[in-house]
């Protein structure tokens, strides 16, 4: 009787046992260096700060525009330095579905801070003075990596603080703080 009871307990316990599967954890890469081209040229580094989070530092030149009160535009490239903590919120889900996560291929939320120093403009405009500016924008973006080549799209709306008002023709915006947006599409190479 004891043998039958023991056999019954063994069979029942086996039918209710759960296979302990270890779930693979997909994380962002520890460090990524890359060069990206869009309406500008940037060199950036992303460093791991958490399972799904990175700190992106970036330096480059980006296309800028200024408009006077008569709707005349001037386009030029200006230096930009950025610091951006990112959270790749769907990297685990992409990995579980068998999609590529290499090179931080995932969607992200971030808070992008960009400083535009008053150093130079390309081409040089003698009549334009671009002051130091600081832009802070919450961003949403998507990044995909294809064998070291990558594509990135990002969008956000935030604020920009101008340390001294720009000088160009009859530009009359006296406000030092303005609402601004960031919309970018870039292609790059990861090394």
What attributes characterize this protein structure?
single chain, 191 residues, eight-stranded antiparallel beta barrel, Porin, 2 helices, mainly beta
Question: What would you note in describing this structure?
Answer:
The protein has 191 residues and is mostly beta strands. It has one domain: Porin (Beta Barrel). The protein has helices spanning 2-16, 91-96; strands at residues 31-38, 40-48, 53-67, 73-87, 106-116, 133-146, 149-162, 177-190. Strands 1-2-3-4-5-6-7-8 form an 8-stranded antiparallel β-barrel. A hairpin with a 2-residue loop joins β6 and β7 (149-162). The radius of gyration is 25 Å and the shape is elongated. Mean pLDDT is 84; it is low at 15-20.
* DSSP helix fraction: 10-25%
Q: What is the CATH-assigned architecture?
A: Beta Barrel
Number of strands: 8
Our measurement of the CA-to-CA distance between the termini, rounded to an integer number of angstroms, reads 70 Å
The CATH topology assignment is: Porin
Global mean pLDDT: 84
The ordered string of helix (H) and strand (E) elements is HEEEEHEEEE
Number of helices: 2
Give the DSSP E fraction (strand runs of 2 or more residues): over 45%
Largest sheet: 8 strands, antiparallel, barrel
* Rg of Cα set: 25 Å
Shape: elongated
Structural class: mainly beta
Can you tell me the number of structural domains? Answer: 1
Enumerate the spans where pLDDT stays under 50 for 5 or more consecutive residues. Answer: 15-20
CATH class: Mainly Beta
Which sequence of strands runs across the widest sheet? 1-2-3-4-5-6-7-8
């Amino acid at each position: 009787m004891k043998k039958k009871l023991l056999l019954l307990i063994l069979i029942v316990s086996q039918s209710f046992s759960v296979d302990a599967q270890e779930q693979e954890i997909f994380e962002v890469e520890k460090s990524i260096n890359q060069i990206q081209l869009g309406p500008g040229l940037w060199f950036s580094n992303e460093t791991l700060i958490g399972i799904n989070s990175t700190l992106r530092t970036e330096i480059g030149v980006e296309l800028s525009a200024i408009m006077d009160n008569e709707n005349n535009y001037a386009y030029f490239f200006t230096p930009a330095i950025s610091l951006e903590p990112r959270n790749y919120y769907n990297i685990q889900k992409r990995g579980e579905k068998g999609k590529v996560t290499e090179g931080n291929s995932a969607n992200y939320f971030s808070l992008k801070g960009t400083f535009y120093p008053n150093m130079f403009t390309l081409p040089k405009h003698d009549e334009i003075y671009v002051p130091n500016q600081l832009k802070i924008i919450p961003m949403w973006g998507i990044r995909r990596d294809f064998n070291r080549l990558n594509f990135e799209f990002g969008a956000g709306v935030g604020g920009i603080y101008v340390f001294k008002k720009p000088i160009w023709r009859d530009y009359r915006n006296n406000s030092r703080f303005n609402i601004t947006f960031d919309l970018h599409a870039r292609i790059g190479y990861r090394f």
